[in-house]
UniProtKB/TrEMBL annotation:
UniProt keyword annotations, A-Z: NADP, Oxidoreductase
Positions of the NADP-dependent oxidoreductase domain: 21-266
The name this protein goes by in its record: Diketogulonate reductase-like aldo/keto reductase
Listed transmembrane segments: none
InterPro entries: AKR, AKR5G, Aldo/ket_reductase_CS, NAD(P)_OxRdtase_dom_sf, NADP_OxRdtase_dom
Assigned protein family: Belongs to the aldo/keto reductase family.
NADP keyword on record: yes
Organism of this sequence: Planomicrobium stackebrandtii
Amino acid sequence: MKNLQDTTTLHNGVNMPWLGLGVFKVNEGSEVIDAVSTAIAHGYRSIDTAAAYGNEDGVGQGIREGLEKADISREELFVTSKVWNSDLGYEETLAAYETSLKKLGLDYLDLYLIHWPVEGKFKDAWRALETLYKEGRVKAIGVSNFHIHHLEELMKDAEIMPMIDQVEYHPRLAQQELHEFCKAHNIQLEAWSPLMQGELLNHPLLVEIAAKTEKTVAQVILRWDLQNGVVTIPKSIKEVRIIQNSQIFDFELTDDDMQRISQLNENRRVGPDPDNYDF
């Protein structure tokens, strides 16, 4: 992990950048277009959106503008979207994929995820993802917000194992048991809300480590993610923050710092618990 283009290799051999831009709650239109194109221009090679975010059109426009600014090809980007709960079914998920592709203006996605583990529905959606994968329409498939028991249930019947589980992950929610399970099954863990929606930015321990490393608290947290082997997708719409969030490849946290940050875990969420989410 030496630079922004560094990747982890998923269990099917596909390379995924360790760091990307998330666009949850980024408004459709100029806000998301500018954020995405700015990130790509500054070296980001991974963009994460979802049907539920309502901004796939703008993300697509931002990708086109970003590719032009950076003078790179589409193949150099890793683009993720997710199927929403109301579209979880075999035919429904296939149709949802086509809708997302059309909005994004792309020929394929690098990663397609089931957004939430809706009981009784996610297995049919997974079959659709397997079909898309076998047909070469998507480079990798995975899930989001799946606990261990959801993964176990999915894996009972799956022909293809998930390559990713994207979950809420930050120092207050270290998800150690889930992380160990994913490692044991070659599933790459990915963090959403890595900065806990800003809640951790004034924590004394993190402020102390940031001062020592001459980095921001956000950079310390994102570096903690990477050194734990977790892909991360911080969200920002401000150019200065987009740049800062990417400047985490020129320093390392000590083992002691890593351990102290991990001890902040309280199993506390800022988002819904997948077991209690009102689907």
